[in-house]
Amino acid sequence: MSTKDLYSATVDTGTTWDVDMSGASRFTWEYDDGRDRLLSLYQKGKDKQWDSAKRIDWSLEVDPYDALGLPEQVLAIYGTPLWDKLTQKDKDELSRHHAAWQFSQFLHGEQGAMICSARIVESVPDLDSKFYAATQTMDEARHAETYARFLQEKMELVYPINNNLQTLLQQTLDDSRWDMPYLGMQVLIEGLALAAFGILRDMTTKPLPKQILAYVMQDEARHVAFGRLALKDYYANISDAEREEREEFVVEACYLMRDRIRGREVWQTLGYDVKECDGYVENSEFMQAFRNLLFTRIVPIVNDIGLWGEKVQKAYADMGVLDMAGADLDAMMRSDEDTADQLDKERREAAEIEQRKAEIEETVALAD
Asked: Can you count the helices (H) and strands (E) in the chain?
């Protein structure tokens, strides 16, 4: 079935969204010099390649009306007068649309990340960064493949790209400065996505989405580390004017990304009053906590790379996330990688137990 038939709203899949990109494609003739940290990350990127068709158990069933196994409280309108009017069928349909909307934005973001990482290969001046960005481009292709398969085969519903995400991708890609795809994608979009993946990975009780989120996060932890390393070196030597321009971009982008999670597309698709639902989103305790947790990666990275001027700090204080600046980013990244490895270990052990049980049953059967 064509993806066109699965979209929640009319989308012309026969045309493309064309973003005019400016800036130079940069060649370098220095093939021996490189930063040890980035080359080590490049080696890790090569070693950690995996196949979505083989590593993920796609035979697992998914109930599209309870795809993540989350409590009803995660829906912003839970406990409101609107919620009380819904039938159980309405609530099930809302759960399906909400999960499909979330994973659709993950899908579109991964395609954006694939294009941005390819852009980094083209425009970044140093070879070690080109090497790593090339491995990331393959990672992002795999992630887009994975989310697309989940939505098409398990959910049978896809949402168009959110306007705020589209705006940020546009701003990131049409800027001629080579560091902007790093800042827009590696730090901001990827950093927020990594936090969102982590929240859902830790909350879901369903094995297939847990596998998808854990394995994608293992890659994304490296990607964010890549942007952090490259930009920290570069921003240490830019002018005050250049730093201020980038800080303004960070502030605008963070507000865009925060407002992306209101779910307006879901309310509109299901025929709910969008303005009324906006009010419920603002007052939802879960949504307030979720929105703040989305910045657990972004805030310490922005601080670490040196974009920590008054405007940035004021914006983060307004969002209620300023105190996240001191979070142990390295520990979070290690945890993201270790969680995927632990999941692999548990699956191997479970498979070995099942194999031994089958062997015992076969032996008993032969003895009889």
From this structure: 16, 0
Tokens 């309870």 locate to 66
Please check whether residue 108 is in contact with residue 163, taking contact to mean a CB–CB distance below 8 angstroms.
Answer: no
Cα–Cα distance measured from residue 82 to residue 77, given in angstroms and rounded to the nearest whole number: 7
Contact 281, 275 (CB under 8 A): no
CB 197 within 8 A of CB 216: yes
Q: Which amino acid is at 146?
A: T
CA distances 173 to 40, 112, 240, 343, Å, are 27, 9, 23, 35
Model confidence over 84-119: pLDDT tens digits? 999 999 999 999 999 999 999 999 999 999 999 999
Q: pTM for the whole thing? A: 0.90
Q: 3-10+35-329 maps to which CATH number?
A: 1.10.620.20
The residues spanned by each domain of the chain are: 3-10+35-329
Q: How far apart, in whole angstroms, are the C-alpha atoms of residue 355 and residue 349?
A: 10
- Per-residue pLDDT, averaged over 140-169, amounts to 95
pLDDT tens for 300-322 read 999 999 999 999 999 999 999 99
**Nearest-CA neighbor of 94 among 112, 116, 77, 111?**
77
- Cα→Cα distances 285→56, 78, 280, 292, 295, Å: 34, 10, 10, 11, 17
Q: How far apart are CA 254 and CA 144, in angstroms?
A: 23
H helix intervals, 204-239: 207-235
Q: Percentage helix, strand, coil, to 5, in the chain? A: 75, 0, 25
Whole-angstrom distance, CA of residue 124 vs CA of residue 135: 15
Q: What Å distances lie between residue 368 and 355, 357, 360, 362, 365, CA to CA?
A: 20, 17, 12, 10, 5
Widest CA span in the chain: 84
Taking a C-beta distance cutoff of 8 angstroms, is the pair 192, 298 a contact? yes
